[in-house]
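Here comes an entry:

___
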Amino acid sequence: MRIESKSEKETFELGVEIGKKAKAGEVYTLIGDLGVGKTVFTQGVAQGLGIDEPVNSPTFTILQVYDEGRLPFYHFDVYRIGDESEMDEIGFEEYVYGDGVCFIEWADLIKGIIPKKHTRIEIKKNLEKGFDYRDIEITEFE
């Protein structure tokens, strides 16, 4: 599925809708360059899950866990991961195969350990269509 977002608000709202529909055990991968809106999208998902606390990209901590919503929300940012084996140190499999919803920013950096069943969300800019325009492609893998 391909969605055009013309504003940060629309990107956020798409995240909210996904958060409302998310189920325990689902894994979402977020792909896109710096500044395309991965964190804005993830903040929308958190709101859709009923999480009220501020959600920021866990670039330096790799993982942020939010337990206050209708499901646990595991937000990974693996931008600083040098090797997939580093994910063992934070208990990656416990979260990915756990009872919450996982969102993994920069997931292409650890593609060898991403579960086969996941939803890939790729966000791209197209400056010809405007500064805030985003092309969002959502693909489910079984």
